[in-house]
C-alpha cells in the first residue's frame, strides 16, 4: 500500500473523502489469521474516543495483552477456534498462538491494507519504499481470528461473523473461501446475508483458482466479490545469459548479488534423479550437479519460495524460475533467500532452449529494484478466479477487480517474508499477492464510501463501486488479461477495476434490500427450509401467484445465459431467443436526465439489445426509475460467449454495467 | 466411519421453539441432548444465523435433522485463505 492509494487516485481526491470523524466512526472487521498489533499501522495517534456503538472485545491471552494490543485504532481482537479444535484437536501452542495474535502474516497484511494508519519510510528490504497506508486509514479495525495452520472452519467463521455484527462492525472483509456451493450450504453466504440485512457491507476475495473458467468462490449476490489486478509497479530482475541475451523477470531478493559475469547455469530437470526434478521439489536436486550454479526450475506443485530454498539447500548459487502455460506471463515477486527471479512462459521457454543447448551454458541475474509507472496497468492477474458463476449463471461474478499483485502491507513478527521455517528474517512489511490482497482494498474503499454516505445500503455501496469501475486504459484500449494477453472479459473483471474517486459520486445506484433477495430465492426455487437457513429472521414463503425471476434481481451487472436450441438432428437451429431483464435505478445525485447506450460483441452472431425506456429523467435526489432490457440473440453453439455494456449517462456521470453472454 | 464424530452447524427455526423453553439456547441444548448425552456444543448463533454447532457422529446428525425445528444440519466445511 505504498503505491495503491496513488494508483487508485485517492491522493488526488482528498476532498472527496474527507478524513473526518465520519470515517473514524466506521469499523472494518477482518476475519483472517489474526493481528500483529505492535505494527505501526495500528498506531492510534489522532484518533478520538472509540465509537459509542461499539460492543466489541479485545480478548486477553498468554501472548496478547489487551492493554498493550488494542487502542483507539485496533478496537477489537478476538479468536474463534472451537470448530477447528473439534476437528483437528487442540491447538499446538508451540506452533501457533491460541489468541488473536497473527503467527502467519496474512491477517496483519489484509487488515493493514484495509485500514492501516500511515507509516512513512515503509518498505520490504528496501523494495516498494514509501508511506504505507490502508485504503481507509481513519477507519477503526477489529480482527477476528478464524484461520489457523490447518485451515479455517465454517463453524468458526459463522461465529466470527455473528460476533462482528453484534460488536458493531460496518464492513466485513473476508479473504477466504470454499468451493462453489448453493448459498444455503455456504456459511459465509449465510453469515453475509444476515450481516447485509443489518446494513453491513461484506467484501470477499474471488479466489486464486484462475485462469480456468467457473473457478470463483463467494458467489452470493449480496457479497462483493473481488478479483485481482496488477499495479503500475514492478520489481525487475534481469536474466543475463552467456549468449548475451537478456530477459526480464521479477524478484524481491535483497542479499548479496551474484557476480556480474555469468556463472554455470543448469536445468533442474538435468540435475535430478526424479521425473519431476524440473519443479525443484524438496529432495529432488543432486547437490553435485547444482553446487555453485544457477538452476532453472519450472513453476508448479510446490510454492515458489520453497523451490528457491531447495536450490539453496542443494548448494545452488541462484535460481531462474520459469512460468509454464498455467501461469503464462504473470510475474509475482518473491523475497527469495538466494538470488532468484521469476520469468514468464515465453522467456522461460527461450531460456530453457539455451540451457539445454550444451554443457557449458552460463547466466547471471541482475536485480533492478523498484520500478514505478509500468504500463499497461492494471492487467488481470492470471491467478484471479473467473466466472461464470457456477451456482447462479444469471448473476455475473466477480463483481470487480482491485490491486492484488505485489502488495506491500503489514506482516507478523514471527515469520519471515517467505513464510518458510528457514527464513529467519523479520520484517515490518511484506509484499505478497492474491485476491486476499484485493479484497481488503475494496473493504477499505467501502469504509470510505460508508463514511461519506452513511445512509447508503450495502447494495448501494457495492453498486457505486461497480458502476463507476473502469474497463479501459486512458488510451481507450481494454484492460488486458495477463493469462491470454487479450482484452479481459466481464468473466475476468466483472464491472471493471475499482475507481474510488468516481464511486463517491456514482450518479445512480442499483439498490437492493433483503426482501429483494427473498424473491431471488423464490426464483431459484428454494424450499422453505432452505430459505429459513439463509434468512432465519423471516417467516417467509414464496407466493405461488407471483412471478419470480432471477433476471429481476436489481443487480448492477448482467449475465445473460442463452440456451442453445437444437434441432431434431441435434444441430443448432436458426431460431432467436429474447431474454428480458428488469432493473430499477435510484438517483443519488442532482436532478438529471440519463440516456442509455449499449454495446455488444459476440463472435458468430449479432445480439440486439433494447432498453425501455432509453431515457430516464430524475427531478429529485432519491427518485427511482425502472427500465427493462431485452437481449435478442441467435442460437449459437454451446460454449459460445460474448460481452457487452449498458451505460446510463447524464453527461457527467457514467453508470456502467457489464453484460456477459453465454450459450449452454 | 458412522461413529466418528465431526462438527456440524445446525440451523434452527427460531419461531418453532416450544413454549416450555424460556431461551433459545436451552432449546438448542435440549435438541442436542435428545440425540446425544455427550455431544459437545461449540457455538450458539443468534444474529447471523439461528442455531448452533456441535460435534456429532453422522448418525447423531441424521437423528438431529429429524428433530422438531431443525431446518438444516450442515457439515462444518474447511475454507482456505486466498
Average pLDDT of chain A: 96
> What pair of chains forms the biggest interface?
A-B, 53 and 30 residues
Write the H/E string of chain B, N to C.
Answer: EHEEHEE
Question: What class would the helix/strand composition of chain A place it in?
Answer: alpha/beta
Number of strands of chain B: 5
Oligomer: heterodimer
Radius of gyration of chain A: 25 Å
Number of helices of chain A: 16
If strands are numbered along the chain, what order do they take across the biggest sheet of chain A? 2-5-1-8-10-11-22
What characterizes the major β-sheet of chain B?
Answer: 4 strands, antiparallel
- Give helix % range of chain B: 10-25%
Structural class of chain B: alpha+beta
**Into which percentage range does the β-strand content of chain A fall?**
25-35%
Q: What's the β-strand tally of chain A?
A: 35
Write down the overall geometry of chain B.
globular
Strand content of chain B: 35-45%
Question: Can you describe what's shown?
Answer:
The complex is a heterodimer of chains A (664) and B (82). Chain A is α/β, with parallel strands linked by helices. Chain A contains 16 helices and 35 strands. In chain A, the strands form 9 sheets. In chain A, strands 2-5-1-8-10-11-22 form a 7-stranded parallel β-sheet, sandwiched between helices. In chain A, strands 14-13-19-15-16-17-18 form a 7-stranded mixed β-sheet, sandwiched between helices. A 5-stranded mixed β-sheet of chain A has the order 28-35-34-30-32, with no helix packed on it. In chain A, 59% of the residues are buried. Chain B starts with 5 loop residues before the first strand and ends with a strand. Chain B has a 4-stranded antiparallel β-sheet with strand order 2-3-1-4. Chain B has helices at residues 24-33, 58-65, and strands spanning 6-12, 40-45, 51-56, 70-75, 78-81. In chain B, strand 2 (40-45) and strand 3 (51-56) form a beta hairpin. Chain B contains 2 helices and 5 strands, in the order E-H-E-E-H-E-E. Helices cover 22% and strands 35% of the residues of chain B. The model of chain B has no long low-confidence stretch (mean pLDDT 94). By secondary structure, chain B is α+β, with helices and mostly antiparallel strands. Classes of the chains: A alpha/beta (664), B alpha+beta (82).
Amino acid at each position: 500500500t505504498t503505491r495503491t492509494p496513488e494508483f487508485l487516485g485517492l491522493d488526488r481526491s482528498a476532498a472527496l473523502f474527507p478524513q473526518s470523524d465520519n470515517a473514524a466512526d466506521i469499523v472494518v472487521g477482518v476475519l483472517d489469521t489474526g493481528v500483529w498489533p505492535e505494527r505501526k499501522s495500528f498506531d492510534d495517534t489522532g484518533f478520538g474516543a472509540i465509537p459509542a456503538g461499539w460492543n466489541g472485545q479485545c480478548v486477553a491471552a498468554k501472548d496478547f495483552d489487551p492493554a498493550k494490543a488494542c487502542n483507539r485504532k485496533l478496537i477489537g481482537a478476538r479468536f474463534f477456534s472451537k470448530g477447528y479444535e473439534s476437528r483437528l484437536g487442540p491447538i499446538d501452542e508451540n506452533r501457533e498462538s491460541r489468541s488473536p495474535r497473527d503467527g502467519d502474516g496474512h491477517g496483519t497484511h489484509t487488515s493493514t491494507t484495509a485500514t492501516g494508519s500511515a507509516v512513512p519510510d515503509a518498505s520490504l528490504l528496501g523494495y516498494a519504499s514509501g508511506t504505507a497506508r490502508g485504503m481507509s486509514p481513519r477507519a477503526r479495525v477489529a480482527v477476528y481470528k478464524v484461520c489457523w495452520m490447518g485451515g479455517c472452519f465454517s463453524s468458526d467463521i459463522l461465529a466470527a461473523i455473528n460476533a462482528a455484527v453484534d460488536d458493531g462492525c460496518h464492513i466485513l472483509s473476508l479473504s477466504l473461501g470454499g468451493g462453489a456451493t448453493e448459498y444455503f450450504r455456504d456459511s459465509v453466504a449465510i453469515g453475509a446475508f444476515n450481516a447485509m440485512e443489518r446494513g453491513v457491507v461484506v467484501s470477499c476475495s474471488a479466489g486464486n483458482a484462475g485462469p480456468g473458467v467457473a473457478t470463483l468462490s463467494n458467489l452470493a449476490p449480496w457479497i462483493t466479490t473481488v478479483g485481482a489486478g496488477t499495479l503500475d509497479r514492478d520489481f525487475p530482475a534481469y536474466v543475463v545469459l552467456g549468449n548475451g541475451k537478456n530477459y526480464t523477470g521479477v524478484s524481491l531478493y535483497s542479499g548479496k548479488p551474484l557476480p556480474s559475469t555469468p556463472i554455470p547455469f543448469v536445468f533442474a530437470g538435468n540435475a535430478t534423479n526424479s521425473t519431476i526434478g524440473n519443479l525443484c521439489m524438496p529432495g529432488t536436486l543432486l547437490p553435485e550437479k547444482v553446487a555453485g550454479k544457477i538452476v532453472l526450475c519450472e513453476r508448479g506443485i510446490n510454492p515458489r519460495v520453497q523451490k528457491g530454498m531447495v536450490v539453496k539447500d542443494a548448494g545452488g548459487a541462484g535460481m531462474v524460475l520459469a512460468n509454464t502455460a498455467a501461469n503464462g506471463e504473470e510475474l509475482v515477486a518473491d523475497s527469495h533467500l538466494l538470488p532468484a527471479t521469476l520469468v514468464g512462459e515465453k522467456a522461460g521457454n527461450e531460456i530453457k532452449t539455451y540451457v539445454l543447448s550444451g554443457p557449458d551454458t552460463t547466466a547471471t541475474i541482475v536485480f533492478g529494484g523498484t520500478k514505478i509507472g509500468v504500463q499497461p496497468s492494471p492487467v488481470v492477474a492470471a491467478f484471479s478466479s473467473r466466472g461464470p458463476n457456477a451456482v447462479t449463471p444469471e448473476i455475473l461474478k466477480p463483481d470487480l477487480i482491485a490491486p492484488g499483485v505485489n502488495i506491500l502491507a503489514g506482516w507478523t513478527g514471527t515469520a519471515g517474508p517467505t513464510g518458510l521455517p528457514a527464513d529467519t528474517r523479520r520484517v515490518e512489511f511484506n509484499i505478497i499477492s492474491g485476491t486476499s490482497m484485493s479484497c481488503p482494498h475494496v473493504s477499505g474503499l467501502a469504509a470510505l464510501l460508508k463514511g461519506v454516505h452513511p445512509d447508503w445500503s450495502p447494495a448501494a455501496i457495492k453498486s457505486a463501486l461497480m458502476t463507476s469501475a473502469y474497463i479501459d486504459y486512458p488510451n481507450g484500449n481494454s484492460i488486458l488479461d495477463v493469462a491470454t494477453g487479450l482484452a479481459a472479459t466481464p468473466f475476468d473483471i466483472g464491472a471493471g477495476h475499482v475507481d474510488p474517486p468516481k464511486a463517491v459520486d456514482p450518479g445512480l445506484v442499483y439498490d437492493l434490500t433483503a426482501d429483494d433477495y427473498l424473491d431471488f430465492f423464490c426464483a431459484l426455487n428454494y424450499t422453505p427450509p432452505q430459505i429459513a437457513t439463509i434468512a432465519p429472521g423471516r417467516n417467509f414463503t414464496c407466493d405461488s401467484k407471483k412471478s419470480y425471476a432471477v433476471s429481476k434481481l436489481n443487480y448492477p451487472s448482467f449475465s445473460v445465459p442463452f440456451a442453445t436450441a437444437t434441432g431434431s438432428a441435434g444441430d443448432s437451429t436458426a431460431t432467436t431467443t429474447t431474454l428480458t431483464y428488469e432493473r430499477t435505478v435510484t438517483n443519488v445525485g442532482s436532478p438529471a436526465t440519463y440516456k442509455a447506450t449499449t454495446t455488444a460483441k459476440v463472435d458468430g452472431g449479432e445480439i440486439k439489445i433494447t432498453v425501455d425506456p432509453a431515457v430516464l429523467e430524475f427531478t429529485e435526489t432519491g427518485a427511482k426509475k425502472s427500465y427493462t432490457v431485452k437481449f435478442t440473440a441467435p442460437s449459437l453453439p454451446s460454449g459460445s460467449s460474448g460481452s457487452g455494456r449498458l451505460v446510463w449517462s447524464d453527461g457527467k456521470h457514467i453508470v456502467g454495467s457489464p453484460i456477459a453472454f453465454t450459450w449452454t | 466411519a458412522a461413529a466418528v464424530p465431526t462438527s456440524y452447524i445446525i440451523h434452527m427455526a427460531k419461531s418453532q421453539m416450544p413454549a416450555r423453553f424460556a431461551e433459545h439456547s436451552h432449546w438448542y441444548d435440549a435438541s442436542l441432548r435428545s440425540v446425544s448425552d455427550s455431544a459437545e456444543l461449540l457455538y450458539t448463533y443468534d444474529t447471523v444465523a439461528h442455531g448452533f454447532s456441535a460435534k456429532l457422529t453422522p448418525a447423531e446428525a441424521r437423528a438431529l435433522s429429524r428433530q422438531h425445528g431443525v431446518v438444516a444440519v450442515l457439515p462444518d466445511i474447511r475454507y482456505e485463505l486466498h
